[in-house]
UniProtKB/TrEMBL annotation:
Region (Disordered) residue spans: 177-209
Record GO cellular component, one term: cytoplasm
The UniProt record lists the keyword Cell wall biogenesis/degradation: no
Compositional bias per record (Low complexity), positions renumbered to this chain: 188-199
Protein name listed in UniProt: UBP-type domain-containing protein
PROSITE patterns: ZF_UBP
Residues annotated as domain UBP-type: 1-80
Superkingdom of origin organism: Eukaryota
């Protein structure tokens, strides 16, 4: 019977000290003995079942710890998933950035190539302008020299015409005058050539090719 209340039902005996107490369905004195002495091993007299109260407590604590660590693992898993997602997004962003950088480098390379071509074209344009200028200067010099030659030939032609006209005038004069003229020296003065005998002098302001 229970050492406290004297009941003979639902009795438990402590395997450490031999104390007999009733279970939880009666006065619960066996549990009080366990709390007071912390004797963990007891035997149910009716069923001969050994109950380890400490094991129940440990199991309860382990369940709590399991739930706690499962919660931690769940949080770690969720955090890892977030980090993986962020890393994946970052990797995708890096790939996009690398592609954009490659396109930018290609555009800069093409721009540099076009700038070089443009610089060469400008340089060639200046060179050809200089060549055209020199050709024009040579043409102008040649035209000037040609005009000077024409003026010289025109002057010689005028002198020749005047000399011929003088000879014709002497030949057509009467005999005595002709002999007197032939015995002297005639200095022909500048005479304006007639429109019929003088060649037409080309104008300088004609179109030059």
């Amino acid at each position: 019977m229970c050492s406290v209340c004297g009941t003979s039902e639902n009795l438990w005996i402590c395997l450490i000290c031999g104390n007999v107490g009733c279970g939880r369905y009666k006065g619960g004195h066996a549990i009080e003995h366990w709390k007071e002495t912390e004797h963990c091993y007891s035997l149910e007299l009716e069923t001969q079942k050994i109950v380890e109260e400490y094991n129940d407590l440990l199991t309860s604590q382990l369940d709590k710890q399991r739930n706690y660590y499962e919660s931690l693992l769940s949080e770690v898993k969720e955090e890892n998933e977030k980090e993986i997602s962020a890393a994946t997004s970052k990797a995708v962003s890096m790939m996009k950035l690398q592609k954009l950088q490659a396109k930018l480098d290609k555009c800069l390379e093409e721009k540099s190539f076009l700038d070089d071509i443009n610089a060469n074209l400008v340089k060639n344009q200046e060179m050809w302008k200089e060549r055209v200028r020199k050709v024009q200067e040579r043409e102008q010099a040649a035209l000037k020299l040609k005009d000077e030659k024409i003026e010289k030939l025109e002057a010689e032609l005028r002198d020749l015409i005047a000399h011929i006209e003088c000879q014709n005038a002497v030949a057509a004069a009467p005999g005595s005058i002709s002999s007197d003229i032939q015995g002297g020296t005639i200095l022909p003065g500048p005479s304006a050539p007639s429109s019929s005998s003088s060649p037409v002098r080309p104008t300088k302001d004609r179109k030059r090719n």
